[in-house]
Amino acid sequence: MSNYIGYAMNPRNGKLEQAMFLDDYYSRHQYAVKFHDGSHYPENQVVVQDCNGNPKYFYRGYSIEIEVIEDSSGGFLYEGSVRMFSQDFYISYCTLEGALLEFKKAVDFQLRYAGEA
Q: Residue 56's domain spans which residues?
């Protein structure tokens, strides 16, 4: 593996930002995600975008593909669904960052509920 630049949601400000992914930072093949503000987190603690630039995001072993939909007023909605524990969770939000935050909250809630958090 190697270091690379990608996009992740910065936990400090909730924004999707360019970040450096540092291989072997915590242990063998355990990436750190380092943001421009100097903060860094284990990769499994932040929402990260698919490294190929696809609208697919990952968090704690779950993934969601976000679709951009124009609503009737000319605005946009960011929608997706994630399957966890035989249930589908649908997310719809007016900003990408908001949709990703809802995805993170849904995963954290379900893992806590299942006793895996």
A: 52-117
